[in-house]
Amino acid sequence: MKLSAIILVTAASLALFGGPAMAEDLPITEVPEVSIAGDTSAMGWYLRGDLGYTPWTGDEAPAYRFDDTVGGEFDSARFSRPISGSAGIGYQFTDIWRADLTGDFFKSDFTGTARTDLPCAASAPTGTGCASGVQADLRAYGVMTNGYADLATIAGFTPYVGAGIGITNVRWGNVHSQPECVDGGSTCSGATFSRQDFNGENSWRFTYALMAGLSYEINDHIKIDFGYRFSDVAGGSMFAGSSGISGRDDGLTRHEIRIGLRIAGW
């Protein structure tokens, strides 16, 4: 028998008799389940709740006016970075598309300095000025309509993107103003520079948000959600007083890290 024929017969024998045994000896590697479409079990109503933290805010610079001629932007304007919360109800329309309606809440503290070129007192040398340290707090209550696209699910993890629009009621608390001389050498005097407290304003403002995140399916009814949200609340009145004294914020921009639960059951 020729060498080529011997090789051919040997290969055929291995294929017929050795193949199954070799296959049994090979380890079986499990591949994570990948689901892109077709899962209708998740459709229906769900409840959600989220907690957020705001490590970054925008470069907001609220403005003020002492009268019709003196005014400007607050120096060293700073908003605190508080914890926020939201709760709502939603509906999963398909394995990809869902939407929800949420109520949102956050609070923040504001500090800033309002400076003028007016002298601290009538006897003060030219070039000195007065600065008012301003402190205030605000609370915000919002209603948002949000839509999401759930992308491919891999081993229980589902990345998503979303967007929302709504309105936010921004309520400024009392605004406290404490004047001080810029050079620290004298005290400010005159009605314009006396210590004053102003009643804060409140107003409804347009708000939009953009979201991205990752959810994990704990079981058929509960998902844990890790996400990022950028939101922008329009500007509005901050405080108002007599003799043309007023303040206005130019909006509230927030970058939030959020964690939450989605509970489906009906």
Concise account of the structure shown:
The chain is mainly beta and 266 residues long. It is built from one helix and 17 strands.
In words, what does this structure look like?
It is a single chain. The chain is mainly β and 266 residues long. It has a single domain, classed as Porin. Helix content is 9%, strand content 58%. The protein contains 1 helix and 17 strands. The strands form 3 sheets. An 8-stranded antiparallel beta barrel has the order 2-6-7-8-10-13-14-17. A 4-stranded antiparallel β-sheet has the order 4-3-16-15, with no helix packed on it. Strands 1-9 form a two-stranded antiparallel sheet. Strand 13 and strand 14 form a beta hairpin. The radius of gyration is 31 Å and the shape is elongated. The termini are far apart. The N terminus is likely disordered.
